[in-house]
Design goal:
Elements (H helix, E strand, L loop, with lengths): L2 H13 L13 E13 L2 E12 L5 E10 L3 E9 L2 E4 L1 E4 H13 L7 E4 L3 E10 L4 E11 L7 E7 L7 E9 L4 E7 L11 E6 L2 E6 L19 E9 L7 E5 L2 E6 L9 E8 L7 H16 L5 E7 L3 E3 L5 E2 L2 H12 L9 H14 L6 E8 L10 H12 L5 E6 L5 H10 L4 E4 L5 H12 L2 E11 L1 E2 L5 E6 L4 E7 L8 E7 L4 E4 L17 H20 L2 H17 L7 E6 L6 E5 L16 E5 L2 E5 L13 H8 L11 E5 L8 E5 L4 E7 L4 E7 L7 E8 L3 E6 L3 E5 L2 E5 L6 E4 L3 E6 L2 E6 L2 E10 L2 E10 L17 E5 L5 E4 L2 E4 L1 E6 L8 E6 L2 H5 L12
Parallel strand pairs: 1-11, 18-19, 18-22, 22-23, 23-24, 36-52
Antiparallel strand pairs: 1-2, 2-9, 3-8, 4-5, 4-9, 6-31, 7-8, 10-15, 11-14, 12-15, 13-14, 16-17, 17-28, 19-20, 19-21, 25-27, 25-29, 26-28, 29-30, 31-32, 33-34, 35-36, 37-38, 38-39, 39-40, 40-41, 41-42, 43-44, 44-45, 45-46, 46-47, 48-49, 49-50, 51-52
Helix pairs in contact: 3-4, 3-8, 5-6, 6-7, 7-9, 9-10
Bound molecules: 2-acetamido-2-deoxy-beta-D-glucopyranose (4 copies).
The site of one 2-acetamido-2-deoxy-beta-D-glucopyranose has 4 residues, from loops.
Length: about 850
């Protein structure tokens, strides 16, 4: 084989499993128009993506619509127009939508989902069958309140139409009453030739950004190529602020109040850093933490006081109390930080309590105290019950200062960190385990580096249903936003009062409604109402997290009702899209963030040939953040893949306890699924279902410990350990491969894999000219349920009625089932067996989204 070709196939094999992989261009489909129209009114952004597509084939075919939107946004509308008819997505309660969806799935219909990609985006994906030489228009609307960070707002627009488009336009219109103090356009789409395709017009309170690249230009930006544009446009701006005045707007019975004074002196802070140095932090994470801490320490002001606590099973501090950030203290602390190494367990409780105690012992007058926890794992020693830790911490802090929790990577119990931060007036932030993690840490610190006010209370008269009004601290570069409803839709009684503590004194502010207000934009008159709903839902969802029992239910209900009223796709709702054909149903719901990093994108492979196969290595040195691997573009040109057609679902069997008849359930094709995960031994197996023409997996990956990876495809198997890799072919002579904790046996289209306590056999099936893979778990690492489709134990059920409409009782729930058949692919002969077909949610006691992964 040609060297370059081998290299390419390996690179593409890695990149194929990455979500940011360039999407394939659809054949015989002409996207003749693609418009993105974003309107930002007082930080509230409503974006509409309109894609018009023609099927240029003289037979009907599936046409795809796939776009990425910011995670923070709520989808509020989706519409397809085909042959003059419109099909609108309907927002429903999630459970209800899910039910409709699983019924559709068990009838053999596919479903489209929203999935999380990378740090900031989510992908919305759907498809529809379009008749020969006909057209379809897709229209997606999403809304978000832009948040001010480090002195600016950022509107992120992603464009990846998958082909150059004759009529491509991005229009952004920003209207800010106070005026716009600066506006800048950044992002991958504003590179190279394309800088010329952007025009910016500014006029008083209004700004327009237009991006109209020609077909040729669409191939020329960084990351763009034959498949046209692929990247982000980031519009950054800030609002003109006259000293301490806040900004108040009202419309149709709602108000919004922005408060971000700039003429206040900074308050010296007392900051304690609580840093995890458990074994899992070893390597790059701890190195990046050291790097970030050195910079952060260097940025402290002389009148700040600071402390550093490092912990694993043991809690140590740099100095027993907070010290002033003098040059010599900072130097001494830097020396301490340089020597932090990682090993051992994780005692979060003792470490945080120690931090609280240090702050509590320190004089608090005329200063702002901040506690920052950085951890990459669950509590494993000392108090490990997270409820207890939360209670302890809350009791110790008593609302006196905020606790910020930074969760490093995806092995942390982020929900726990979020709750703990929320309960203590702080926020939790994820630090992505990437080459720029040190900058993420510094970036977070910068946001809280300059406290300007503490104990901010805002009160309103003549208003109701007001969002959060108490804030622990206000930092330079941020902004406080409150929205609410006017009592009796009247301004007569409407007043406000803001009290806060600044460096030396208690401050009081009163804001009035700007008399010079420009009339609202037609079509967006009610944006303040929507903004209020957006903010209220976001805050209710956070509040719900830390409540229990009836209170939780009430808050949930309130958030749900508002989501439904405003058609927001939130974590409590889903959008049901019914397609013209066969009442086919798709459901879009807000995905959970899962363990995906951009790391995979940054793998560079170096190949060398060897008698045993082909070896590749990962470069040890990480590249500068933000640099993309070039070959992506190349692969995109060399190996375009064809797209999904007529996907049919894949049927899975679940063995039953004490019952002869197993259960079975269906999963729509081309999903990426978690198959088995054993956190106790760092074993995980994921798989991707074949897109069409098969009933199993096109690819299965196994990860074990940190550096063992195995990728099985129908063509080949690649096993890599640290720097080395070996390749097997399914039809080669039987062979063994043994290392310390791993044994691989390849025989007769079976790869038998033993890793630690787990043994799985991956079978290659060939049916009607199609080949696919199927995993069979032969030995489980644990006797309890584990995450993943194959992590369940045999299900116990009883038969309620056998008659014409049979019913089973499964996990205490009575469900209608139907008698069906499934193929047992866990053995080579693949026998057909009878089974009870049940909805996925019943079989697996969870949502499909709990079992999907963004990348293998
Ligand atoms: C963008 O949307 C707004 C609101 O619907 C509309 O007034 C405006 O004309 C649109 N702009 C373009 C360029 O389509
Ligand atoms: C707040 O930040 C701005 C720049 O974003 C800076 O000009 C100003 O001096 C800062 N204020 C304080 C009190 O540090
Ligand atoms: C806000 O703070 C005030 C004064 O401490 C208190 O009375 C009020 O209950 C707080 N409101 C909320 C919603 O916590
Ligand atoms: C506040 O919300 C409640 C519940 O939705 C509603 O009944 C009430 O009218 C609202 N108050 C005002 C002043 O609009």
């Amino acid at each position: 084989m040609d060297r370059a070709l081998i290299w390419l196939s390996l690179v593409s094999f890695f990149l194929a499993s990455v979500t940011s992989e360039p999407k394939a261009k659809q054949q015989n489909v002409d996207i003749y128009s693609f418009h993105i129209n974003s309107t930002v009114t007082s930080r509230y952004a409503i974006t509409v993506i309109t894609s018009r597509v023609a099927n240029s084939l003289d037979e009907s075919q599936e046409v795809h619509f796939q776009v990425k939107i910011p995670k923070n946004a709520f989808i509020s509308k989706f519409r397809m127009t085909i042959e003059g008819k419109t099909y609108d997505g309907i927002v429903k309660q999630k459970e209800e939508a899910q039910q409709q969806y699983s019924q559709a799935v068990s009838r053999g219909q596919s479903a489209g989902l929203v999935s999380s990609v990378g740090r900031t985006l989510e992908e919305f994906k759907t498809s529809v069958t379009v008749a020969a030489l006909s057209k379809v228009t897709f229209e997606l609307t999403y809304e978000e309140l832009l948040k001010r960070r480090l002195g600016k707002y950022e509107l992120l627009i992603n464009a990846q139409p998958t082909q150059p488009v004759a009529d491509f336009k991005i229009d952004v219109y920003i209207h800010e009453n106070r005026g716009i103090s600066f506006l800048e356009v950044k992002g991958g789409l504003s590179t190279n030739e394309l800088t010329n395709a952007i025009t910016t017009t500014r006029s008083g309170p209004e700004s327009w950004v237009r991006f109209y690249p020609t077909r040729e230009q669409q191939k020329q930006c960084e990351g763009c190529g034959e498949n046209g544009l692929n990247g982000d446009l980031i519009i950054m701006y800030d609002v003109e602020r006259s000293k301490s005045k806040g900004e108040l707007r009202t419309s149709q019975g709602y108000f919004v109040h922005y408060f971000a004074p700039t003429d206040v002196q900074r308050i010296p802070k007392n900051v304690v850093f609580v840093i995890d140095r458990s074994g899992s932090m070893q390597g790059r994470k701890i190195a990046q933490t050291r790097l970030a801490m050195l910079t952060i320490l260097g940025d402290l002001s002389e009148d700040d006081h600071f402390g550093i606590i490092i912990f694993n099973g043991q809690v140590d501090s740099w100095k027993p109390e907070l010290l002033k950030a003098t040059q010599s203290n900072v130097e001494d602390a830097k020396q301490f930080v340089r020597q932090i190494t990682a090993r051992g367990s994780t005692d979060i409780n003792a470490a945080v309590l120690k931090g609280v105690e240090m702050i509590n012992r320190h004089p608090q007058e005329d200063s702002a105290s901040i506690l920052i926890l950085l951890t990459d794992g669950d509590p494993t020693t000392g108090v490990t019950n997270t409820d207890k830790i939360q209670n302890n911490v809350k009791k110790a802090i008593q609302g006196k200062f905020p606790l910020y929790c930074l969760g490093f990577g995806f092995d942390v119990n982020f929900e726990f960190l979020k709750k703990m931060a929320m309960e203590n007036d702080g926020v939790a932030r994820r630090i992505y385990d990437d080459s720029d993690a040190d900058q993420q840490l510094q970036g977070f610190y910068e946001e809280v580096a300059t406290p300007l006010l503490t104990d901010i209370h805002i009160s309103y008269t003549g208003a109701a249903n007001v969002t959060q009004t108490n804030f622990s601290q206000y930092y330079n570069g941020s902004e406080i936003v409150v929205a609410g409803q006017l009592t009796d839709n009247s301004l007569d009684l409407f007043t406000n009062e803001i009290t806060a503590t600044s460096k030396s004194k208690r401050m009081e502010y009163h804001d009035t409604i700007d008399p010079t207000i420009h009339s609202n934009l037609p079509g967006f008159e009610d944006f303040i109402g929507r903004l209020w709903a957006y903010l209220t839902v976001k805050q209710l969802l956070e509040k719900e997290l830390i409540l229990k029992g009836q209170e939780k239910e009430a808050v949930r209900k309130e958030a749900l009702d508002l989501s439904l009223k405003y058609d927001f796709v939130t974590p409590l709702t889903s959008m049901v899209v019914t397609k013209p054909q066969e009442e086919d149903i798709q459901v879009a719901h807000k995905p959970k963030e899962t363990g995906l990093t951009e790391e995979e994108l940054e793998i560079e492979l170096f190949l060398s040939e060897n008698t045993r196969g082909f070896y590749f290595t990962k470069p040890k040195d990480r590249k500068a953040p933000g640099r993309n691997v070039q070959p992506r573009r190349w692969i995109q040109n060399v190996s375009p893949t064809t797209t999904v057609l007529n996907a049919s679902p894949v049927r899975f069997l679940i063995q039953a306890q004490d019952q002869s008849e197993p259960l079975c359930y269906d999963i729509p094709a081309s999903q990426r699924l978690r198959l088995l995960q054993d956190p106790s031994s760092d074993f995980s197996m994921n798989g991707e279902l074949i897109e069409s023409g098969g009933t199993g997996f096109s690819q299965i990956t196994i990860h074990y410990k940190t550096d063992l990876h195995m990728t099985l495809r129908t063509s080949e198997i690649i096993f890599s350990e640290g720097q080395n890799a070996v390749k097997f072919l399914w039809n080669q002579e039987p062979t063994n491969h043994e290392t310390d904790s791993v044994s691989l046996i390849l025989r007769n289209k079976e790869m038998d894999v033993s890793m630690g306590n787990t043994r799985v056999v991956i079978l290659l099936h060939e049916q009607d000219g199609n080949s696919f893979l199927w995993p069979a778990v032969r030995q489980r690492p644990s006797t309890t349920t584990l995450p993943g489709l194959f992590g369940t134990l045999p299900v116990a059920y009883t038969t309620v009625t056998q008659s014409r409409s049979p019913k089973l009782k499964i996990q205490g729930q009575e469900v209608r089932v139907s008698k069906n058949r499934a193929t047992d692919y866990s053995i080579h002969s693949a026998p057909r067996v009878g089974c009870w077909l049940v909805p996925f949610q019943v079989a697996m006691q969870g949502e499909l989204s709990d079992f999907t992964v963004p990348s293998l």
